[in-house]
Write a structure and sequence with these properties.
The chain is an alpha/beta fold. It contains seven helices and twelve strands. The strands form two sheets. It has a nine-stranded mixed sheet with strand order 6-5-4-7-8-9-10-11-12. It has a three-stranded mixed sheet with strand order 1-3-2.
Length: about 300
């Protein structure tokens, strides 16, 4: 009995000894957990403070007077006056560039924001000034708006009521001029444009002869040969004629295969068959062009050497 009592007493002593140890371990674990929680909170707090400070500094900088728009820089233009275009930006002068950009950018055009582009302003200017073909309006830090303009350029001229109408490659009427103001490009005969308005298009299926003339002259511009031809007669769109002063006639035929025919003409004129050739160059048959000299009508017609690129 005594032995059992002593064994139980020793067992109780060991259990009592283990309890403080376990309590200490639990306390240490709890303290470590609290320290980790405080550390995580401290890191989050620092991150939030840094983000808040960055946002605050950014807002202060963006609202700073240094970003107020003070200059509008417009590229050189000829169809409109710079003063007229500058007046379109009066509402932006003195305003903060970033805020103006935000206000003019819709949710669907957020890419304009990252490119610092005033997309809505570009659209309104294209509508208000139809002689502008392309335009870029961008914010140039810190205080400038840069306006880059590509104007429409004429590719042909036609006469109406004693005035010469300049028309671009999309059929837009760019202006009316006297004969003295003619540019170095073909005069189109055989089309009639009435009730015209500058800044509107005369193309688009209203008249086949007009559309054919625009296609021909647009291709000539691409080939850098607008100055090669003086007159294009599209009175009969199946039998188009071209003339180079003073004495070269070109029987172009229909407006089919325009690029190949014009490449032939360019190569042939470059090789020496110019306006002084006194003859007719016939491309209407669809094969190789044939040149017939007016002074040797009884002789066999010549076949000019065509450039390889025209095949």
């Amino acid at each position: 009995m005594g032995t059992q009592y002593r064994a139980a007493e020793k067992s109780g002593d060991r259990a009592s000894a283990r309890r403080p140890s376990r309590n200490r371990e639990a306390g240490q674990s709890q303290n470590a957990h609290q320290r980790r929680g405080k550390k995580k909170f401290s890191v989050r707090k620092r991150i939030l403070l840094i983000v808040f400070a960055a946002v605050a500094i950014t807002v202060i900088l963006l609202l700073s007077p240094i970003f107020s728009i003070s200059e509008i820089r417009i590229s050189a233009v000829s169809l409109y006056s710079s003063e007229e275009l500058l007046s379109s930006f009066d509402g932006l002068k003195g305003k903060n560039g970033f805020l103006s950009l935000l206000q003019s950018t819709s949710f669907s055009d957020l890419d304009d924001l990252f490119r610092l582009r005033f997309g809505s302003k570009e659209e309104s200017l294209l509508f208000d000034y139809p002689l502008i073909k392309n335009i870029v309006v961008r914010y140039d830090l810190p205080d400038t708006i840069v306006v880059e303009i590509e104007e429409r350029t004429p590719v042909m001229v036609t006469e109406s009521d004693g005035m010469y109408l300049h028309i671009d490659s999309e059929g837009y009427l760019l202006g009316t001029y006297t004969q003295a103001d003619q540019l170095d490009m073909p005069v189109i005969r055989g089309i009639r444009i009435s009730d015209y308005k500058i800044g509107t298009s005369v193309a688009g299926g209203k008249d086949r002869a007009t559309d054919d003339a625009i296609k021909i002259c647009s291709t000539m511009k691409q080939l850098s040969m607008l100055s090669y031809i003086d007159i294009i007669d599209v009175s009969d769109y199946n039998e188009i004629w071209m003339y180079c002063a003073p004495s070269l006639s070109i029987k172009f035929g229909s407006a089919d295969d325009i690029g190949r025919k014009l490449s032939y003409i360019k190569g042939i004129i470059d090789s020496g068959y110019d306006g002084n050739s006194n003859g007719t160059l016939d491309l209407s048959a669809g094969g190789n062009p044939v040149f017939k000299n007016n002074e040797s009508a009884q002789e066999a017609p010549e076949t000019p050497q065509a450039p390889e690129t025209a095949q």
